[in-house]
TrEMBL record, chain A:
Its EC number is 6.3.5.7. Belongs to the amidase family. GatA subfamily. It catalyses: L-glutamyl-tRNA(Gln) + L-glutamine + ATP + H2O = L-glutaminyl-tRNA(Gln) + L-glutamate + ADP + phosphate + H(+). This is glutaminyl-tRNA synthase (glutamine-hydrolyzing). Keywords: ATP-binding, Ligase, Nucleotide-binding, Protein biosynthesis. One of its GO terms (biological process) is translation. The keyword Repeat does not apply. It comes from freshwater metagenome. Coiled coil: none annotated. Gene3D superfamilies: Amidase signature (AS) domain (3.90.1300.10). It is an enzyme of class 6 (ligase).
Automatic annotation (TrEMBL), chain B:
PANTHER family: GLUTAMYL-TRNA(GLN) AMIDOTRANSFERASE SUBUNIT C, MITOCHONDRIAL. One of its GO terms (biological process) is glutaminyl-tRNAGln biosynthesis via transamidation. It comes from freshwater metagenome. This is Unannotated protein. InterPro entries: Asp/Glu-ADT_sf_sub_c (IPR036113), GatC (IPR003837). HAMAP family: GatC.
Amino acid sequence: MSDLTRLTAADLAAALASGDTTSVEVTQAHLDRIAAVDGDVHAFLHVNPQVSLDAAKASDARRKAGTPAGALDGVPIAIKDVLVTTDMPSTSGSKILEGWMSPYDATPVTKIREAGLVPLGKTNMDEFAMGSSTEHSAYGPTRNPWDLDRIPGGSGGGSAAAVAAFEAPLALGSDTGGSIRQPAHITGTVGVKPTYGGVSRYGAIALASSLDQIGPVARTVLDTALLHDVIAGHDPHDSTSLKQEWPSMADAVRKANVTGLRIGVMTELDGDGFQPGVLARFHESLELLKAEGAEIVPVSLPSLAYAVAAYYLILPAEASSNLAKFDSVRFGLRVNPVGGGTVEQVMSATREAGFGDEVKRRIILGTYALSAGYYDAYYGSAQRVRTLVQRDFTAAFANVDVLASPTAPTTAWKLGEQLDDPLAMWRGDIATIPANLAGIPGISLPAGLADEDGLPVGIQFLAPAREDARLYNVGGALEALLASKWGGSILDKAPALTGGTR
Amino acid sequence: MSDISAETVRHLAGLARIDLTDSEIEHLTGELRQIVDVVASVSEVATPDVPATSHPIPLENVFRADVVGDVLTTEQALASAPEHDGSRFKVSAILGEEQ
């Protein structure tokens, strides 16, 4: 067969079903690709070929017996290191969890195993998912397959780079303020943040519990949908998991039709502060949808001006609480101060040594926002802004079916460029954060390349809570329109990685 | 302007149980001042008549029968502990000499 790593998950599933290839062949091809290029890209923190090949052999045996576990049985997948796994270490990108082995699998991991997918390894991320560039990983940054001197986005830069570099057809991600969607935008791939509670978070190392959501990462909208269908659903282990039946997202892509669809353009995210090439590709995509029968309507959501500020109070507050569990007692690193000390001194020395700068910054900010005398002014006010953002979305969705914006203000920046200015990096989350504050689903898919730098640009769609299928409808339709315009996929234009430059 | 001093940050680091170095405290004091000046803008629109939202999707408490669920064994729970005695986590002294 032609290069198996270039095929989509849907194509691989078809080739496996027809017997044209085997999971062992497909898995080995991806392991070879990882061995060839991941020294340059550094998408993976951990790969264990034997574990992957054993899972692939088991899949081939099921296929041979005529009892595949599902359509994607035998298709490889990369797993963001925020999700705990029993057969591979789970670090969440932090030194404090270096080498830690979980005694249980996260539910999304259990679901992909039950569906027969083959885990390839754990992907790099900003430490505890705090960051937009993957430079805050304690294990070194991931590099953008489009330009190895640039960031791959974050926090899920590893998962996005893995699919963009053809190291995996699918990956799992987590999105607290854009960590699935922004890396998709930056790397020319597709990522979806489902409705809050749509996918179980059991076994996802928590960052901010009222914002976190697990979701799919892939190169096409259909592949993202196929993975979404595998991981969605109620889980009694996660008390915030929604009890409801979900329609097939893959069906929504296959039946995509935007005739009469009302698309609201968020005026606050269409102009100042956005790179010209990002806006140009955004408006072109809207024109394509309009020509296909969609109605484009400008919509104003005035409270978005305060969303980043509210987010950077709520997230640090919740993170400072969630990360209290890293206490040097039950798991992870323990550092004893010189000459010994009390348990609290051991804890403080451990957390000083085990957490990176961004994690410390956010814990201190969160502790401040929650401290006596400041709670109402900061955390309390941020929660009120959250209500305003939700009201703006409710009002907007009364008149439109989906909302649209560029996924992020700029294309990929150079490694190191924003490291000394945390506020600048945080402002880059302006377009993705509102969905997390409101719990609504969002997708980012490639809209083209920016003229000024030739780097990928994503377009984002948002839908009301529980209406994830609308994202796959509009995303699937736009992807097909763009593919016929380009004569292929955006990733056909990415430089061929050959490996060995680092 | 916020009233954040190095002493504030030192106090917060104590509450958060992070043994920050002096240079980290100095650096964070400046950063925290800038950050708080920006995030404080939330109070411009967060008027008392707006209710607070803690959770994006309204949910009710989830109850279950009071029976032993799907839990770890002692061995599993201790497997990754920095120190244990076979049945319990081991830590150093809880109280200092002056306490």
